[in-house]
């Protein structure tokens, strides 16, 4: 096993501990295809005529409607939202026949306000996907003339919020469950069975939906971090892809959502696995082993113990009968004792519906993804797990810290979508924050313009919740958004953060084949930061350097700046 530095504050003996947007892609793509708009004999650009069915609505203008007209518009929007399963696309400034007539700036502003009022009546949000001038050779709003009489058209996405997003955000329980273990232990297959609701055929059919890359399908080895979910309704019934067509439907009907973080098992991808265990802050870890026990399984167990992550063990592939269960448990206990921990492994039975992870007892499950043996007990156990480190709502007044774990692009958006974990505080729409650090060590002022949680728009995100969001410059005078990358953070303005290249940490050498001296280069994981660092000094270093099981205070120099506050 490669060396792993367990970092914590030298002045504190306690150890410190990453959405997909669904914007009716088919409908948006349909509108996108109309960028190559057809022209009639008068060279007037047009969209296809307004469809009678579906979730697309054309409106020439929505200016000061009467109360009766407003109620009719709300009813019409409700129908369009139902047609789009909670989403609708409004084309403002467009006639029913598709002609891009456009509106003046003031009329467009009034129409968008009416549209917002309509959406608010139905508990929905609006977002401008794109805005342009009508029938102008220069379609770019930013470069066209400032003539206030220039006619504009706008494409607006209307998306309905769930009740839970508006009123009782905390009623939906989020649980992050990392899945780790050696290669060939059957982790992806197990997740495929749990999330798809169908047993495996013994040749890996269930895992195909879990794999992201062609080389993973060819080799059967997971090399990247992937996410899958299952949900549980108020009565404890499982909601997976056997009952629901999409992840959005699962989240819509679930009172509890479990996000599985599928990690790589091969030693070649160990750094990716460590990133998943540190950066994604899982509440619990499911360690999957397949008899006979091997060294790689022990390494993954050592990671859980070193990071002090509560975990339980799943003995997979018991239908193959490689060795007896007592023998496997004995091997697991010996591996734990070898790390200097005293834990007791106990087989899970159906009468034990919950477990105290603060105790020295680790539950063990025997399962088979082919016969289905033990899967019901495992599902019931996961159903009763709870996030052990969730902050209370009192933390809403704390300073905010959001870890950016990934960035991705969504059709129709100019800015990237950021996915990550809110470590502390709360974020609402319109919140002004600082993002960074930038290459020069500075932080840029931004504001939050959209929030998504559990694949649905929301108004508020609280501590320990995962979310995706988009940003905009804080004010009109603020600089444009910088290049955003994983490892950055969003932090409260009043925290006055700064960036650093040097840091000092107490490290424990779990294992390393050779001694470690000053000048040693390694990869350090701290939260969502994964950075190459060089050891510049070792306090009280001996001539022999640092070896296995040694502890020392070490000065590191990072190759790039990271945020501290």
Automatic annotation (TrEMBL):
Keyword S-adenosyl-L-methionine assigned: no
Keyword terms of this UniProt record: GTP-binding, Nucleotide-binding
GO CC terms: cytoplasm
Signal sequence residues: none
Domain Tr-type G: 172-393
Molecular-function GO terms, alphabetical: GTP binding; GTPase activity; translation elongation factor activity
Identification of the protein by name: GTP-binding protein 2 isoform X4
Annotated family: Belongs to the TRAFAC class translation factor GTPase superfamily. Classic translation factor GTPase family. EF-Tu/EF-1A subfamily.
Key word GTP-binding present: yes
